[in-house]
Amino acid sequence: MTQVLVDGLMSGVLIGLGAIGVTLTYSILGFANFAHGEFISFGAYATLMIASGISALVVGSDQGIGALSISPAVIAASLLAMALTAGLALALDWILFSRLRGKSAAISVVMASFGASMAIRAALEFAFTSRPTYFSRDLEIARPIGLGLKATPDQIALITVAAALLIGVHLLLTRTQIGRAMRAVSENQALARAAGVDVDATIRAVWALGGALASAAGVMLGLLVQIRPFMGFDLLLPLFAAAILGGIGSVPGAFAGALIIGFGEAITVELAGAEWRAAVAFLILIAVLIIRPTGLAGRPT
Q: For 7-32, how does the pLDDT look when each residue is reduced to its tens digit (9 = 90+)?
């Protein structure tokens, strides 16, 4: 049962990286972006393709580093994929959402995001088929890390990277000008504009940040499990559940909500079986909406 702690933490940090983009997009733009799950899938596939190209050009770059199955090619490719996924998010906003913003009802924007989600997912399935693929087929053995817990080297490395990314996002939002602008626009867009904040640039920064973090989550999920066109879609409900549980607009709240979802899933798999994993996020989401609609860190409206 103690192994649930490692599995829950790993699941929680993956959900947390994606939930940050969901909560920022909703708090600033006021709609649920269903295409966010496809940013996760796109980032994983972009990393896979770039890593394959690097491996073909640089001999030995596809070999794991030390005890890790993660190769230098995947590390370099993941950074490029984060930039590409940020670009995809910006392009989607420029082509679609910016034309609807302020001109259409919120439900129209939500449906547009749902359509974009299906289009991106279909494009990925057309390009790569629905057959699962992998960054590496090397098998890793979990090693004791103390207190009766075991983890693979990849899990330890990815948890460390995810923690660094989350700390970086926190510092970005609290210590930088663009972070303060994001918080101002989230509080009151009209007032922020009147105070001299470049709202359009802030919105672009939110899209780029959300896309990059979603790409990182996709790479981590692909390294731990497998890469599929539906991998992001399957993670969408836990992302929204974590964002709502934490309180829309609160990045620490979204991460806390993600950890709760992650541990809940791990405990459910341990006690009831993997087929019940998907039900956990749904039940927690329903409970939050009934008991505390503003979430853990949300403010009453």
A: 888 899 999 999 998 998 888 888 88
- Calculate the CA 142 to chain-centre distance: 25
pTM reported for the whole predicted model: 0.92
Rounded distance between C-alpha atoms, residue 89 and residue 103, angstroms: 20
How many CB atoms within 10 Å of residue 31? 21
Give the tokens for residue 209: 């940040």
- Domains of the chain: residue spans and CATH: 3-291 (1.10.3470)
